Amino acid sequence: MQATVRIRRFNPEQPANNGKFQEFKLDVPDSTTVLDALIKVREDVDGTLGVRCSCRASICGSCGMRVNGQAKLACKTKIADVSRHGEPITVEPMGNMPVVKDLITDMKVFWDKLRQVEPYLQPEGPAPKGEYIASDESMNHLVGVMNCIMCGACVSDCTVLAVDKNFIAPAALAKAYRFVADPRDSRTSQRLGVLNESGGVWDCVRCMYCVEVCPKGVAPMERIMKMRDLAMEAGYNNTPGARHTESFASSVKSDGLLNETKLAIDSTGIFNIPGQLAQAPVAVRALLRGKLPPLFGHKIKARKQIKRVFEKVEGQE
Amino acid sequence: MFEHDVLIIGAGLAGMRAAVEAVNRGANAAVITKVHPVRSHSNAAQGGINAALTDRGDDWTDHALETVRGSDYLADQDAVEVMCSEAGAALIELEHMGVVFSRDEHGKLGTRRFGGQKAARTFFVGAITGQAILHVLYEQLIKANVRVYEEWFVTSLIVEDGVCRGAVTLDIRTGELHTIRAKAVINCAGGAGRVYEPSTNALICTGDGYALAYRAGAPLMDMEMVQYHPTTLASNGVLISEAARGEGGYLLNSKGDRFMLRYAPEYKELASRDVVSRSEQTEINEGRGIDGTVLLDVRHLGRKVVEEKLGYLQEVAHDFMGIDLAEQPIPVRPGMHYMMGGIKTDINGATSVPGLYAAGEVANVSVHGGNRLGANSLLDTVVFGRRSALAAIEYGKSAGAGSRNEDLLASEKKRIQALLDRPKGLRSASVRRELAETMHSHVAVFRDQQGMERAAAKVKELKSAYGKVAVDDKGKVFNTDLIFALELRNVIDTAEAICASALTRKESRGAHYRVDMKKRDDANWLKHILVRQSAADGDPKIDTAPVTITRWQPVERKY
Ligand SMILES: Cc1cc2nc3c(=O)[nH]c(=O)nc-3n(C[C@H](O)[C@H](O)[C@H](O)COP(=O)(O)OP(=O)(O)OC[C@H]3O[C@@H](n4cnc5c(N)ncnc54)[C@H](O)[C@@H]3O)c2cc1C
Ligand code: SF4
Ligand code: SF4
Ligand code: FES
Fold first, then answer.
1. Spacing, Cα A185 to ligand 3 middle (Å)
2. Same domain, residue pair A133 and A229
3. Could you tell which of A148, A156, A207, A211 is best to mutate to test the pocket of ligand 2, judged by most ligand atoms within 8 Å of the CB?
4. Interface test with A, best of B38, B56, B305 (most A CBs within 10 A)
5. Domain encompassing residue A248
6. Which ipTM did the prediction report?
7. Residue B483 CA: which ligand is closest?
8. pLDDT, tens digit, for every residue of A123-182?
9. How many domains is chain A built from?
10. pTM reported for the whole predicted model
11. Which helix (H) or strand (E) segment is A296 a member of?
């Protein structure tokens, strides 16, 4: 089949074409992946093309990049699936990370965030003579998170990270969950305490992008949500995050709808002036994108019923 | 110039295990790796890691015997004893570091059965065992705050007066060359899959570690022993792990026969890999294959087992073949997978060059001999990675100060500049492809004199053509074109060592099966073949060494 691949070029030593797309037309077998095509370009046409790759089998995590605007693993993406009628595909480096050369990004941000969550097991006391006893179920559950190959796709496309560099971001948070949920780890509560701070689990806006782009089914956002629950259960209440949830709940309860403006103010803390100011850029950016929620939230008709649901649930507790 | 007590080349399982040991013992150790540590090829290991746990009624001497038998009696039995007796401790240590191994109903480590072994002693994490261990070792690296030269490429070893004292390296990001001096160097640079096409190995497995040692005068041992794995995808060589057969999968020919019942009535699909690969190839050659493949069938295991225990295999089958393993058998064939041969070391990782140690796939201790058992390689990496770190630290205490001259740096700069300056010439990708396809045709599952000679001649021809290789990219920043050209030289040198050794062994043993000499010949060839590159003329020089036999006398292998 004929494939047309448009690659965004970048070379710090020859900046003339930086940011421009270069088009390559290739004759390839139907089963060709985006990575196969890039390798073909590099081996047979233009050896200057910069791209990281190694395993070709979605296990080493080297080949994260944006294909038609969305972060993907090039070796896991068949050309036929992203170009159903032979239309050109665009290939660009991942987002949220500086570009080194062509499709190669500097992943320092990614690794630094990983370090931030103390990504190693911290058991209590001296190790037992044999293995730690743990249920197969608990270990299997963690395998789902250990599946992460650190490809960076989720970090590339994370909405919050794009506006808040302080956000620990999906991959490192998923990694944190791997320890929070490990029955062998002794620092669950301390970990949750740290993750409860600014930049942690409460800063995610639940856009789902990380879940959508993750090539390994790690579902970072779901892990983040789980840690919110665990943090609340562990008694971390008077923090931006917990206030956020409480405000969320009271907003839904009284208006039947989420009042996002109120939510932002509540969760930062109404007397936290610097915090309130820090919200401004987000609001301005959201406004520019036409995304700022209306100042006075709508109320929906069924709000009485919603209120009743709340009362019922609260009554049970 | 940088300086350390111990410089570890490679951040796969062997390299990281060595680094964690060295740093935790207070040594000034650093790791250098051409890719980020978690990109190392150890991540591809799917099936598991072997250990005989005594508290489960297993016995390490059984594991050792099966390893020796699997090796076709070419393994050194003292080395096998070390590996198998230390396996339990090594495994538990990994668990304590945080590896999320599968459990049994009592919450203890659970097992699966692997090839060449009667007992189920393979411990695993779904079908991502290598990845799960690699990432945990990386966590330990972060915890111990180990210095990592990340995306740095070793171009050559510094050897002064016969003693290894560091390496010349290229920072890929900046294109600058640097000397890193060290009292001891541990070579953990991994395998050489790219010497063959196709291969289950990653694109970075270019035999750098073998070639670095070979050129430095350290002998490589049993390089003819190249493992073909029985179940690889015909399209691109990607592996379908032995776990599929370990969980109970069948191999079928075009007639739907479980042909392994004929070749290995007792072990069946779980006979040693050389045996299964030869059986498959025989079926294919005799017309009972399907387009050069046989079928791997796991349907009878049911969807739950396929998805829970073989999840990554399911992913690979789906991505590359559009096959749902729970519904449909998958076509597979033998494919190049692993190098049993490697840098000759003693049981502490010491090579013949003082100051140079080696561990992992690149080393040959020798625990795999003529054929490696599945799940013994991960074990090899952690056991001997650790031991080599201990030995290197000890050696470093008495290693005198080396010179501080930068001669090698200067000559490497010149060599690389010449490569960059060559305006036009051969493309390294096409030279590599030609070489690798030749190796696959002639030094593979079935071999004969004529074919091996043809391969050796081709390698020689391409070695002299190497001087005509040119690169498109003349820049400094992340010049992967240049890296490929440097790797190509390593691929060629490794192929040379393989061919020279293969032509020397005049018998069939383990993976080295000659259709013109089908019998194992213990009287003449129960010995190791050593090869080193002569400093004088650059040609391979052959030698032999005895095999260490402790308690298991060679007998005929039956599966
Ligand atoms: C698909 C597949 C599945 C496997 N499954 C299993 C299994 O289930 N069980 C089992 O026991 N074994 C298995 N094996 C074998 C096993 O995975 C490997 O033999 C083992 O992981 C090798 O580890 P290593 O540390 O020696 O090398 P690697 O993990 O390959 O690491 C090599 C390191 O060296 C570095 N390096 C190389 N050259 C240079 C250079 N010039 N400069 C700087 N750095 C360099 C690389 O960057 C890398 O960090 C499998 C192998 C494959 C290919
Ligand atoms: S769901 Fe949260 S973590 Fe995931 S991409 Fe969106 S904001 Fe980022
Ligand atoms: S969570 Fe998924 S997308 Fe994010 S780094 Fe891990 S594997 Fe990649
Ligand atoms: S090349 Fe390894 S994940 Fe794509």
1. 22
2. yes
3. A207
4. B38
5. 241-316
6. 0.94
7. 1
8. 999 999 999 999 999 999 999 999 999 999 999 999 999 999 999 999 999 999 999 999
9. 3
10. 0.92
11. none
